[in-house]
Amino acid sequence: MHPSTERSPGPPRSSRALPLATVALTALAPAAWGTTYAVTTELLPPGHPMFAGLARALPAGLLALAITRLLPRGDWWWKAGVLGALNIGTMFPLLFLAAERLPGGVAATLGAAQPLLVAGLAIGALHVRPTVWRWTWGVLGVAGVGLVVLGPDARLDTVGVLAGLGGTTAMACGTVLTKRWGRPAGVGPLTLAGWQLTFGGVLLLPLTLVIEGLPPSVDTGAAAGYLWLGSVGGLIAYTLWFRGIGKLSVGASAPLVLLSPLVAAVVGLGLGESLSVVQWVGFAVALAALLAAQWEGRATVPAVAPGSGSGSADAAVDVPVVIARR
């Protein structure tokens, strides 16, 4: 079945809201990630993005393995390795590098482009063509975040911009592949998160020691920052995220990452910053884009290409298609 071209940017004629509890729990993950910018700039020692990624990933991954006591089997060794390299081993250090070299607003805007990247990758990997409705709200979401976080004094650092785009692209690829492969039968989201955090941490360990080294000192504030990023922003957030990806379409889950820069803006308010009228308008637009993505068409096609599923029930969750509107 090949989806036809959508003719209107309006919402599907026959639509339904996704389960509120599933959306809300999944949204907690990007909301937690929204604290990363403040924690990085306020608490962590500068100049050590790889160590920050390592400290966030490996202890949390090993803890998850100790809790679940499940290791990958068969082709899930390399699949977990690929997902861990994309979602953790590549994304974490690039995220921290971008947060160090760019104003939080610029880094957040680059991350807000992820729903558009996911929509594009889903065409080839999941055989799903996003509707004009999805594309339109995706663009509006990036624009809204830009209004919130970009100021006239925003500086662009080439290395920081490349790091931000690289981290966003890596996680977009990881999100799509996670949806395509699903989870092995009997494996829960905590186990999947543990595999990926461990693989990503093991990948970062030698690179950190050889290229960057350890920070000269880690004070109490930095230790608290690493603990927060590894627990709430790491193991807990990724468990909720992978659970949500298994239950929601990528078209619904990917726009939830818009919460990250919005939460970062709210944290900034708590640190004494203020928002202008234009920024509040952007906040409303980004929030509207996030909510608009949670309306799905009733007709669906399989999200996993024939023969590519992992045997998991979650891998067979459908991605919405609106007949005669795509």
From TrEMBL:
It comes from the Bacteria. It is a multi-pass membrane protein. Its main location: membrane. Residues 23-149, 159-291 form the EamA domain. InterPro entries: AA-Vitamin_Transporters, EamA_dom, EmrE-like. It is found in: Membrane. Coiled coil: none annotated. The chain crosses the membrane at residues 50-68, 80-99, 105-128, 135-152, 158-178, 190-211, 223-241, 248-271, 277-293. The keyword Transmembrane helix applies. Keywords: Membrane, Transmembrane, Transmembrane helix. The keyword Transmembrane helix applies. Belongs to the EamA transporter family. This is EamA family transporter. It comes from Streptomyces lanatus. The lineage of its organism: Bacteria, Bacillati, Actinomycetota, Actinomycetes, Kitasatosporales.
